[in-house]
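Shipment paperwork, digital attachment
Item: protein structure file
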Amino acid sequence: MTSTHFWGVLILTLGLALCVPAEAQTSFGPIGGVGTGTIVGVIVGVAAGVVVIAIVAIHYSKKRTITGCVRPAQNGMTVNDEKDKLVYALSGDTAGVKPGQRMTLQGKKIKPKAGNPLAWDVRKIRTDYGVCQP
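Attachment content:
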């Protein structure tokens, strides 16, 4: 979810929470000393809070993975990503990563800086599929 979508949902939710219709006074009076408009507002506000927390939690808990063939390189190892067809230099926890194996690695992409290649910071090996196919 992009930042634009997040702010759009937030504005829409707050707009709906603050749009409480006017009510005619009745002889029954408010429930427990609190008007029904206030109760509706609180319910909508709580629902909006739950939605925002759920969106943020899902966005940040997403498992980022890369799948491809691991190859030996001059300064370590690289992986050819099957999705975007780019080559990433591996860093981080590469203890169980084996050259010549097709693997799914969990971690995050490291953006290149000053002539460095794309890199992948390995946090965990998710799956080892065995020897790479030619």
